[in-house]
Amino acid sequence: MAESMQVDAGSEDFKGTGQCLCGTVQYMISGEPIYSVVCHCCNCRRSTGTSFVTNTIFLKKDLKWQQSKDDALRCFEDMHTDSGTKLMRHFCQFCGSPIFATTPLWDEIVSVFAGTLNDQQAWKPMKEQYCDSKAPWLPDLGVTDRTCRGPGSGAPL
Ligand SMILES: [Zn+2]
Ligand SMILES: [Zn+2]
């Protein structure tokens, strides 16, 4: 589980910050992303109300988050996954923003919903998954690493 601690924007290894819509939950990432991915699965669509989601995968130890109100960050246990292992979808209970997801299948990583990053300029997808349920109106995103469903066992989303 990610640990809660003070966000220190002056840290030397500062890489990125983000927050939920209402700002109650804020986070800082201090390490390099493992990869970034567009997910077209119907669970991601439903949980975000969008046609696809954008995620960046980091080591859990590189994510520090804080909340200005107690218990702002809540977790929905998504049981309807391909693997059958629950996916923990962490969100702000006040504004509903999905912040990150974790899974016991790949315990050392966290999948951060990239739309919550403060800086959107540098983000681009390295992978695309669950392309078999991709919305037909979406154009080719120019991603070569594409899978019909999840990327195999350990798929975070
Ligand atoms: Zn919020
Ligand atoms: Zn998904």
Automatic annotation (TrEMBL):
Tell whether Metal-binding is among the UniProt keywords. Answer: yes
Q: Which InterPro entries match?
A: CENP-V/GFA (IPR006913), Mss4-like_sf (IPR011057)
Report the residue ranges that make up the CENP-V/GFA domain in this protein.
14-124
- Which keywords fit this entry according to its UniProt record? Lyase, Metal-binding, Zinc
A GO molecular function held by the record: metal ion binding
Pfam families (UniProt xref) = GFA
**What Gene3D superfamilies does the annotation carry?**
glutathione-dependent formaldehyde- activating enzyme (gfa) (3.90.1590.10)
Assigned protein family: Belongs to the Gfa family.
What's the protein here called?
CENP-V/GFA domain-containing protein
Give the species: Rhizodiscina lignyota
